[in-house]
Amino acid sequence: MVTTDTSSTEPSPTPTGVGEGPAARGSTWRTFVSAFLRRREASVFIVAIGLMVYFRLSSEVFLEKPNLVNIAQASAPGAIVAVGVVLLLVSGEIDLSVGMVFALAPFLMHYAADFYGVPPIPSIILSLVVAALIGLGNGLIVCFLKVPSFVATLGTFYVLFGVVLTTSHAYPAQIPPSMEGRIQSWLGAADWAELIWGLLIVAYFHVMFTRTRWGIYTVSVGGNLLGATEAGIRVNRIKIGNFMMASTLGAFAGIMEAFRVNTIDPNLGGGTGVTFTAISAAVIGGTALAGGSGTMIGALLGAVVLAVLQNGFNLIGISANPFYLILGAAILISMIANQYLARLRRAGGT
Fold this sequence. Notes:
By secondary structure, the chain is mostly helical. It has one domain (41-341): ABC transporter involved in vitamin B12 uptake, BtuC. It has helices spanning 21-38, 42-58, 65-90, 98-115, 120-144, 149-168, 182-189, 193-211, 213-223, 225-230, 235-261, 272-284, 296-315, 322-348. Helix 2 (42-58) runs parallel beside helix 13 and helix 3 (65-90) runs parallel beside helix 8.
């Protein structure tokens, strides 16, 4: 009888990872790069890194601590205000008055502390409450009187501008003596105080925007107003709440900036300057002006890009005049890129 040895025909086991390791690693890397490039923050992150490398090569002082502090202090207020702007843009609205809330809040704090003897912390809280009420007023006008938010908040901007100039007589005021020292240091005067507060606020609202019903409803309201209404979402409540948060964040950023510069100035934030800086940061960071999509991390990166760009121009001796030309071009390029990436996401089913 002839026996056949079948053991030789059985496939020999292949050691795990032999032969397919490089291919698997290459596939993983391509997947990672593809996923990264599909994120809204990808383009602005690459731009931020590119600018930092360029200015570091152009100036040795760019990465020194004093200059990094300057960049942090320049970017943090815009990032904080941009968080509120993102909420409004995503929900299909806009607030042009937040820049004057930025300037008004330190005066409210000053009046409460110096004229009425209110303690420091309650004075700050009181100014934030007034700012929230201003946002409430904007929201009520937009939602119930059906006035477009651009027009409504433009009117509020001029009303608040008049209030600031009239009550201050167009003169700066000193920081209340009761707030000098530890409170002033913690809320803006210390080197990294504004940046730390900015990062905490961005992190909190990022979680709220991406992980809570409020964020989901905000996206729904801005993306499909009729559908959100039919789904039972209280649209007016979402929009009014976002107006209130945007104003409150603007007030908090203004108070911190007043503590940092050690004076309360009617022109704090440059009037519309901080408003348009925040809008620019939001748009450059990937937030759609048409509503329905946005990112808090992108807004932070957008604010950093603007601060790095302006700071780098100063370091390498370029006139500040072309800054706004570049800013305008950056906004246009960002909007075009957002539209292109949106098509990619829809094509990829993400």
